[in-house]
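Notebook entry, structure prediction.
Reason for the run: the old model in the group folder had no record of what sequence produced it. Starting over properly, with the input documented here first.
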Amino acid sequence: MVTSRLLRTLSAFNHSARTWAPIPSRNAQSQVVQRHSLTSRNIDTSRTQRLSLVSWNIDAFSSRPVSRARLILSHILEGPKYPDIIFLQEVTPDVRASLLDDARVRAALLVTDAEDQTSFEGVPFATMTLLSSVRFASDLDSQKEGDGIEGWGKFMLGCVSRVTLPSKYGRDGLYVDIIPPTAPGTVFRLVNVHLDSLGDTLPYRAQQIKMLADVLREPGCGGGIIAGDFNAISPKDEGLVDENDLVDAWVALHGRAGPGGATWGVGVERQDGLGPARLDKVAMMGLNAEEMEVLRPGRIEMPRPGEESVEIPWSDHYGLRCTFTI
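New structure, fully documented this time:
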């Protein structure tokens, strides 16, 4: 299937210029060749490489989105398990600006969509991906690596793109190509998704998952991870991951009847009768899930003019943390 794509970039913050600077895109094949030249120097590439991912739908529509997003980011970055990869869904333009202005993000992360707001035009929100600069190589790291083995433990970065999906709501799949130091001949893809919402869009979600699974099977790609808000609201959604020969990381680790796992509707009484569900998922191809847990949101105070303030969760979704190996 031919897919339409919008090329994007990853950016690193240039502290001297006080601005976000796009990392020049590098040809994935040339990176693979460079890796092979390094392996010829008897560098051990047989070891598995471990990465950790946090994915969170941060809720665009509740009050105080910027404040809530900051609290979620603090929970992600200041906990004992600092992630290598962060997938965010329902990022509004104001939240995007707040993320790009955050000192912690500027100091330690590479981000998508810092170059412009194209991905946020004509839609109420979009996805953003943030990568640890400790684990993923910037262009400067790549230049150093050409001199020898410096930075060998870092993943090289390839293409960044948004795959246009058949969608009622203008959704897409944001992916970043990475090349592991322990698998120098293979590209893996990190795909951040927010599939179509509500029960009537199941046919769209089925098409979306098939298309994204096909992206992981393209020539030169050894697989990868698709994670985010799958909006798996109906019983028929539960079969879509298996139907596309993907591995549901939660099911692989906890089983289908395992405890917990719900990321939406927890502790909420709904008039439509829908109960807690695993709307957010991590699906894999060619990777191995090691650990996975649900991240519970805290609460934020909401002032109400003339009334007593109330507290609401940071988001209507729980987050997911998943550790996997390549």
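Summary: Residues 27-43, 142-151 have pLDDT under 50 and may be disordered.
The old model has been moved to the deprecated folder.
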